[in-house]
Structure formats: C-alpha cells, structure tokens
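Reopening: structure tokens for the manganese (II) ion complex, inputs below.
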Amino acid sequence: MRIDSHCHVDLYPDPHAVLANLEKDRVLTISMTNLPSHFEMGLPHLKGCRWVRPALGLHPSEVSKHSKSTLANELRRFERSLPLTSWIGEVGLDGRREYRESRHEQTLAFGQIVAQIRALGDAKVMSIHSAGAVREVLDAIRAVGEVIPILHRFTGSHDELQAAVSTGCWFSVNPAMMRSSAGRARIEAMPRSRILTESDGPFVRIGDRAVVPADTDLVLEQLARMWGQDPSEVAAKVRANFNEMAQGLRHEVR
Ligand code: MN
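Re-run output (same inputs, fresh job):
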C-alpha cells in the first residue's frame, strides 16, 4: 500500500481512469474537492472504491470566484456533508498577492468551516493550503480542537515550520517540492515522523503529463536518497506515519 494524502481526482480529464489505476496500484488516496457541491457530485462515483477517501473541501482560491450568496450556499452544503466523511480538504487560506483581495472573505469562510467542525465535535483529518498564511492557519487549527492537520505543499519559513510542528501538524510532500532546493531544504527540516506523501495531481506535472497517485513513488525515492535509506524503508515509515495520524479518528466514517 502506498499513500497519496492529497490528490484532486475530480479535476483530471478522466477521473474514472485515475480511480481505476489507483485501485489497481493500491494507492490509498485522499481525494480532495474544491467546493462542497463538487463533493456531493463526486461521492456517488467513489462508492465501491476501496482505496479512496472522499474529502470535503472549499479551496481558498474559489472564494473570489463566487458571489456572496453562492458562497453562503456552499458553506451550508459543507455543513450538510460534514457528517458523511472524516476527511476535509482542500481548505485553508492563501495570503499571496494574487488572492489578497479575497483575504477577508477567505478568513470568514475558513472561520465558518472551523466553527462547523468544532460544533460537530468529531475528529477530522484536514488537508490544508497555507501559502503565505501559515500563522493564520495555525491559529485557526488551534481553535478547532479535534482536528488532525496536514499542511499540504508547505512553503513557510523555518520558524513557521517549527510553529506548525508544535501545533501537531503533519506535512504531505510532493514531486514538485522535491524539484527546488528551497523545497528540499524544507523537507529536510521536517521531522521524519510527520511526513506523508502526496501527488497534488493534476496540478503537479512530470514532463508533459500530470502526476497520478502512483507517482508518490518518486517522492519515496527522493526521500530515500535524502535520508540515506532504502525506498522500501521509507515507504514503511510513511505508512506508519499515516496510520498513526489516522488513529486520531475515533471512527472513520469512510
Ligand atoms: Mn491541492
């Protein structure tokens, strides 16, 4: 079994082909959604998939694309679907310049998501986008209580990394992060016991194709080189990390 903690299965041109392959390759895949309405649409297609966990999300980049009333409707849908899954993602905040105008609305939306999770009181694993907003994301995580946070594609500073570690965050790392020296330096600074693998497909590319869940093998190979270990040892470590992380779920709804 391999682990893809963050993949947007519904955003590939042919999601069914991606599903068939990850089932064949036995890659346990947390399938992100960018809007609650996408989660509702996708859920029936995931029934019968043994290796997929459907995640309920509202991506920060979606906030600026919709009217206030559409967003309010999506947040109601979020609340309605919340009891159906133990997996949340992709959610979070983006503090980078191109999303600055929606910053206030992003904070409101993420705040509502956090409040909904806290009100329900069930432990949830949350795959979080934190580009340019690590401190704010960590504050929100501390407010939820029962959340198991995974910072996906972490791009923060060394101090922010330490703060994330003390807040109990896990880190999912992908092939694109391994390509830059800054990305590799961040990964080297992460505690090995908190590292998970992800593809972030289809947004990460290898040559002229989008990565798929099985490409998390590349991350295992690169971690093996970085750590001076065998890829099979690293694979076992990532599996153990994932199991430890998911242990916090009192009951996995599915
Ligand atoms: Mn993503």
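The CA atoms of residues 149 and 169 lie 5 Å apart. The longest strand covers residues 2-7. Marking as resolved unless the reporter disagrees.
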